[in-house]
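Lab channel / #folding
Pinned by the channel admin:
"Please post every new chain as: sequence first, then the structure tokens as a reply. Keep commentary short and put observations after the output so the thread stays searchable."

First post following the new format, from NK:
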Amino acid sequence: MKKWIIKSGLLVILAIFTAALNSCEGFTPNDEDEDEQADELYVKFCNEPSSVFTITSIEVRPRGPATGTYTPTDNWSSNILPAGTTIEPGDHVFFTLEIPSLHWSEYRLKVDDGDGNIINVDSEDLSITHWGDDKRTVGVTISLHEPTNKPYISGHYDFAGI
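Reply from TO:
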């Protein structure tokens, strides 16, 4: 019985020691890489097949923590699509954004009106959120508002994973 108590005590001490070592925060070269990657979000951006416009520009601006309210003070970015890149209905592109984990950015779009004119799409609440994964799928459906003959966002989504 005495040997069993000693063995049990040693196992408890070993378990506590192991737990203490695992909880220590030490610097390793991988820590720096993980922090840098946490500020990047890999995005698949889709222009849904039912859209009637080709996307020519995506501009973003940070909105802060995903759980808080933040009035944007930053200017809109320039077009984040590579030069000459457009997204036709039914197509998608991949890009990386600098959005810290648990933060979000809003975006706005410009489209080709079908006659070669590039016009803004009136929209609100279009978001790209860095939440749940470091990869994100974002998509829109852009329709024509016939009474005004202007494009509008008739559907959009933003979810973790690709």
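NK: The first strand starts at residue 40 and ends at 47.
TO: also worth noting, Helices lie at 2-23, 29-38.
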